[in-house]
Amino acid sequence: MISFRNLGLLAKVNIIVAGILLSFFALSTFLNYHQQKAFILEESVEKARIIASEAIQAREYLSRQLQIGDVELSHGRYGLIPVVASTRIGELVAEDLDYRIRQISDRYRNPKNAPDVFEAAMLQRFYGSPYLREAFQISTLQGERVFRYLQPFRAEESCLECHGDPAAAPDYIKELFPQDRDQAYNYRIGEIIGAASVTIPMDKLSRQIYANLRNDILYTGGIFLALITCLGLLTRIAITQPLNQLGGAVREVMHTGRFEEKIPRRGGDEIGILIDGFNEMIDNLQEKTEHLEESEKRFRLLTETARDGIVAFLSNGQIIMFNRQAERMFGFSKMEIIGVSIERLIHEDCASIREVSIESYLEKNAAELMRKIHKIPGRRRDGARFDLELSMSVAESDGHLFYTAILREREQS
Ligand code: HEC
After folding, report:
1. Measured from the CB, is residue 52 less than 6 Å from ligand 1?
2. Cα–Cα distance list, 222 to 20, 24, 200, 333 (Å)
3. How far away, in angstroms, is 110 Cα from ligand 1 center?
4. Could you tell me if the CB of 303 is within 6 A of ligand 1?
5. CB within 8 A of 320, min separation 6: which ones?
6. How far, in Å, CA of 72 to CA of 93, rounded?
7. pLDDT in tens, 95-149
8. Cα(155) to centroid of ligand 1, in Å?
9. Considering just the CA atoms, what is the radius of gyration of the chain in Å?
10. For the CA of 169, the nearest atom of ligand 1
């Protein structure tokens, strides 16, 4: 698995930004959902209020018109009884609009108007709190999620005609609902007589919530997506591309050792400064390398044209430099002798060197060797002995000692 640290800059930026936006997105969706829900609930309450109020207004209007017209209600005109008529009108409208309205009472006359469990509980609440003008809740009805709303009715003067003293009720009412079997008589003015009950299926409301939410998600999601894309593009153009170029140039320099690759200048932003710094560094390195090559050339020329043999070796005796005059003296080429021990160049006659390892010999005698010019027997490639004058010096480089021997062939006397 690739760890986050090893991802490209662009991928990192994208992941971080996407994470942040996604959190915002989730939060905004969550808040939106709740706002939508609150809004829909508010709307449902408003709708239910209108429905209930319409039923009540219809009943009151009818009641007044019957009084003005002096219409005598009877068995045959049962459907004109205001409560009956308004309930029927409500039912007809409800069929079209997919909600339900009922006028219910604990002391019902018509069993169809008996409250269900929820309505009965709400009625109890109304009895308990005389100032409560409405109540609503989301609940379930026959397995369906519904919004339920109730508004209580209180008995007024006009109601008592049929709901007051049973003796004073119209004959057809008395006939239909004999006093001994009916519970809807004997109300007093102001007493709660029942309630308008409105039920709206939540299904439709939820669908609306989800439709609104979906539009919202699409909208915010679209904006976030555009934002991420723009940011990714910007990161690529402004950061990762120039950095890649820089990385490529550095790699090129490392591989080829040539300092020709330069990166085109760009503005004065952080990456621009980095690029300028890189170009400057390349210039400096190029100059230094040229100087180095120059001085190396000079050094080589100096040693190669010297009339003395010059041999440099490490403290373990390993030869690291061998000039042309030394080649001539000993009969070895550079190629052959570099890396070989200095002992190879000293004749067996020089016993003091052979006694111990060259390393410990140098350790013990280096100071003495360096103080003055020594005479030692040299050994040519073919094993022949010849006399040498030796002067030594020592230097340190990279923590290693290395010795330089300047050799001159002594005239045979
Ligand atoms: C003309 C007689 C009459 C008058 C006036 C009258 N009602 Fe009724 N009411 C009835 C009858 C009859 C029923 C039974 C309806 C049915 O069969 O659905 C009824 C039913 C009800 C119900 C439904 C519960 C039940 O008992 O079945 C409520 C609630 C109600 N009336 C409230 C009122 C209120 C409030 C008023 C005054 C604003 C009022 N009524 C005025 C005759 C009347």
Report:
1. no
2. 15, 13, 34, 78
3. 9
4. no
5. 312, 313, 314, 338, 339, 402
6. 27
7. 878 888 999 999 999 999 999 999 999 999 999 998 899 999 988 888 888 999 9
8. 10
9. 55
10. 2
